[in-house]
Amino acid sequence: ICWSEKGGWHRPRVQPYGPIPLDPAASVLHYGQEIFEGIKAYRHADGGVYTFRPDRNAARLRKSAERLALPALPTSYFIQSLRELIAVDEAWVPSGADQSLYFRPFMFAKEAFLGVRAAKKVAYYVIASPAGSYFSGGVKPVSIWLSENYTRAGKGGTGAAKTGGNYASSLLPQAEAASKGCDQVVFLDQDRNVEELGGMNVVFVFKDGRVVTPASDSILEGITRDSLLQLAEDRGLTVERRPVPLQEWRDGVASGDIVEVFACGTAAVVTPIGVLKGDGFEDVQPTGELALSLREELTDIQYGRREDKHGWLVRLDG
Ligand code: PMP
């Protein structure tokens, strides 16, 4: 579907997968004016195809759009774009444990000009790909490298938007993490508060049952995290969204106050953090039951194996 300043959203269509024509002066190539989302469709035992909280992804896409000076896409268009793809061939959605169809909705500035201003011509596309299990052979704790040399986003920057530039700036730190033998990188803000991983949010579980996650206007508000915290609240646990200093994390683990640390996002759902490594230290992280039990509850809802009490599922086929 296309957007222009004069015509608004127009020309919705489904076309065969293939290269997109792009003018060499298209502003997305020069100024990075683009945003995206990630959301899955799940096959239920009754054959139906469902997606999870698409209103949240649509709202986040609009929030990203606002920050990147792109037009707002209505929630109904967003959900319709997923439906249209499923309608072409719903057999694309695999069945089986941990199998899904991953949608990648994205919006970019295609107006051709050289000059720094918001584009007046924009395109919104969705591509999709079957996704298997994130972990082969069961969920394994990941190791995390503490990035001291780089930040992901600054105050007033684009950290809360899902835009390619944030990921571009995390590629080098991610490579640094890999060179240190770690799976993922964790970013701090300028005040040494914990932000998030390159593509996942972080959650801490305290001995007294509190579940704490960094609140900041420079991290991506994960929909997986929000859902897990809701399920934790449903179990009577206290949830805190607030700044979490790195020192609190390291001291909490050392003293035994923090009993679990995990990361979460659409791709992996939940993954325990096994080790935090940084320049000159390596903290082994405690492991517990909550992360995996919340993971099971959430995936049970997504795959229709458990009651959807919060009305999170939206049917896409039929
Ligand atoms: N933070 C970042 C930087 C991400 O890329 C993602 C993945 N979208 C998340 C957090 C988790 O968000 P969600 O649970 O909506 O997938």
From TrEMBL:
Taxonomically, the superkingdom here is Bacteria
Entry's CDD domains? Answer: BCAT_beta_family (cd01557)
EC annotation from Swiss-Prot or TrEMBL: 2.6.1.42
Q: What class of enzyme is it?
A: transferase
Matching entries from InterPro entries are given as: Aminotrans_IV, Aminotransferase-like, B_amino_transII, BCAT-like_C, BCAT-like_N, BCAT_family
One matching Pfam family is Aminotran_4
Q: Does the keyword Amino-acid biosynthesis apply?
A: yes
Q: Which cofactor does it need?
A: pyridoxal 5'-phosphate
Q: Which residues form a coiled coil?
A: none
The answer on whether this UniProt entry bears the keyword Transferase reads yes
In this chain, where does the modification N6-(pyridoxal phosphate)lysine occur? K162
What reactions does this protein catalyze? L-isoleucine + 2-oxoglutarate = (S)-3-methyl-2-oxopentanoate + L-glutamate; L-leucine + 2-oxoglutarate = 4-methyl-2-oxopentanoate + L-glutamate; L-valine + 2-oxoglutarate = 3-methyl-2-oxobutanoate + L-glutamate
Q: Which GO terms describe its biological process?
A: amino acid biosynthetic process; branched-chain amino acid biosynthetic process
**Which GO molecular function entries does the Swiss-Prot or TrEMBL record give?**
branched-chain-amino-acid transaminase activity
Q: Which pathway does this chain act in?
A: Amino-acid biosynthesis; L-valine biosynthesis; L-valine from pyruvate: step 4/4; Amino-acid biosynthesis; L-isoleucine biosynthesis; L-isoleucine from 2-oxobutanoate: step 4/4; Amino-acid biosynthesis; L-leucine biosynthesis; L-leucine from 3-methyl-2-oxobutanoate: step 4/4
What are the entry keywords?
A: Amino-acid biosynthesis, Aminotransferase, Branched-chain amino acid biosynthesis, Pyridoxal phosphate, Transferase
- Family label: Belongs to the class-IV pyridoxal-phosphate-dependent aminotransferase family.
Name this polypeptide is given = branched-chain-amino-acid transaminase
Q: Which organism is it from?
A: Microbacterium keratanolyticum
Q: What is the lineage of its organism?
A: Bacteria, Bacillati, Actinomycetota, Actinomycetes, Micrococcales
